[in-house]
């Protein structure tokens, strides 16, 4: 017959004809040698979700070069380019200026933090690389600051 709350050695544990659990023994300060049946395997970690990656092509008009690189959908385009030793124009890195502005030739970009670009310019197909995430394969060209 099980008794709940029976005091034993300074700790409370359920009496069921078996020895107290490892936690109960730890609480009482008695033997902590665990039996194999008392040890539980930690659950296997869930597999990491696969983040889609998109091909980004940047036509850098000022330098006269074209860059092709892959960008995970959850990463900023400018940050990923820099991690791959690709130099692109930028200034603030926070979406507040237009130094990294590009015109979208094809594809889609998500830029929820682009404060430095008006809704009108967005509708005309402009985006900021420093706070832009690719939503598809993307082709863009850099702009002169006075455009």
From TrEMBL:
Superkingdom of origin: Eukaryota
Domain 2Fe-2S ferredoxin-type: 54-146
Keyword Transmembrane in record: no
Residues of the signal peptide: none
UniProt key word Lyase: no
Major localization class: plastid
GO cellular component, one term: chloroplast
Any one GO MF annotation of this record: electron transfer activity
Cellular location(s): Plastid, Chloroplast
Cofactor list: [2Fe-2S] cluster
Pfam family, one: Fer2
The entry's keywords: 2Fe-2S, Chloroplast, Electron transport, Iron, Iron-sulfur, Metal-binding, Plastid, Transport
Family stated for the protein in its record: Belongs to the 2Fe2S plant-type ferredoxin family.
PANTHER family linked: FERREDOXIN, FERREDOXIN C 2, CHLOROPLASTIC
Protein role: Ferredoxins are iron-sulfur proteins that transfer electrons in a wide variety of metabolic reactions.
Protein name in the entry: Ferredoxin
UniProt organism field: Aegilops tauschii subsp. strangulata
Lineage per the UniProt record: Eukaryota, Viridiplantae, Streptophyta, Embryophyta, Tracheophyta
């Amino acid at each position: 017959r099980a008794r709940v709350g029976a005091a034993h050695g300074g700790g409370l544990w359920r009496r069921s004809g078996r020895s107290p659990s490892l936690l109960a023994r730890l609480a009482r300060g008695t033997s902590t040698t665990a039996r194999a049946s008392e040890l539980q395997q930690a659950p296997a970690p869930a597999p990491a979700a696969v983040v889609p990656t998109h091909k980004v092509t940047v036509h850098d008009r000022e330098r006269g070069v074209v860059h092709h690189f892959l960008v995970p959908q959850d990463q900023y385009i400018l940050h990923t380019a820099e991690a791959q030793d690709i130099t692109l124009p930028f200034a603030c890195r926070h979406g507040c200026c237009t130094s990294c502005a590009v015109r979208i030739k094809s594809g889609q970009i998500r830029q929820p933090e682009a404060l430095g670009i008006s809704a009108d310019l967005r509708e005309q197909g402009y985006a900021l690389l420093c706070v832009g995430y690719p939503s598809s394969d993307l082709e863009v060209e850099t702009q002169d600051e006075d455009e």
